[in-house]
Amino acid sequence: xxxxxxxxxxxxxxxxxxxxxxxxxxxxxxxxxxxxxxxxxxxxxxxxxxxxxxxxxxxxxxxxxxxxxxxxxxxxxxxxxxxxxxxxxxxxxxxxxxxxxxxxxxxxxxxxxxxxxxxxxxxxxxxxxxxxxxxxxxxxxxxxxxxxxxxxxxxxxxxxxxxxxxxxxxxxxxxxxxxxxxxxxxxxxxxxxxxxxxxxxxxxxxxxxxxxxxxxxxxxxxxxxxxxxxxxxxxxxxxxxxxxxxxxxxxxxxxx
Length: 256
Ligand code: PXP
What we know:
By secondary structure, the chain is of the alpha/beta class. It is 49% helix and 15% strand. The chain has helices at residues 15-24, 31-40, 59-71, 84-93, 119-135, 149-158, 170-178, 183-198, 214-220, 230-239, 241-253; strands at 9-13, 45-49, 76-80, 97-100, 140-145, 164-168, 202-206, 225-228. Helix 4 (84-93) links the parallel strand 3 (76-80) and strand 4. The longest helix has 17 residues, at 119-135. Bound molecules: pyridoxine-5'-phosphate. The site of pyridoxine-5'-phosphate has 19 residues, from strand 8 and helix 10.
């Protein structure tokens, strides 16, 4: 049986446009312009992470970037931790997608997937997903997780309350940059893919990916969506945001 054809989607995470703005407390660069340029150049979705410490994206950004995605009729993916204050904002904003992530104030960036093997975390994530499903029936929910078997087993019981998982690709991306063997990662991602598909969920990837490290994942043809941020904004320093997004999107679409 041949696998169904998937056209991978590119979600551009524009958090680091806001990082640059917040570093000087200025009103530029504009996240609204960044979102518009990414969507004009073919991005399938805009991703933003409203962190508890508001180190980059601010509450007003969520609203203003949401207006841009609406105008382009493209999804807004709100990454967020499970804290009460952020949940209230998500309930008011009604994003197209919510991606639940772990959040720790000391970390430089999200350092791994949700530890749903921990009972307390599992119960909290389940309760938050059920609440969103009840109050925001049109919003789809994704969980940012690792791809090990124990985590996948926990996903099985969460599946009725979610729509997708996003696999944390940070370790894969680091190994790619270090020139290490990637076969174990790819094997695990493929095994996880079969499990996730049996549950009827979408299969996304994100964290640490670059225009080069995404290629072996594209070749594996298993992920439906890639959320990429830091590398795009870093590369934009040299090539311009529009050109980076256009070229990356063209690359991704070659693997339809
Ligand atoms: N996906 C998730 C769930 C994330 O937390 C992040 C980082 O905010 C990304 C994707 C994008 O990661 P990067 O900026 O390393 O490309």
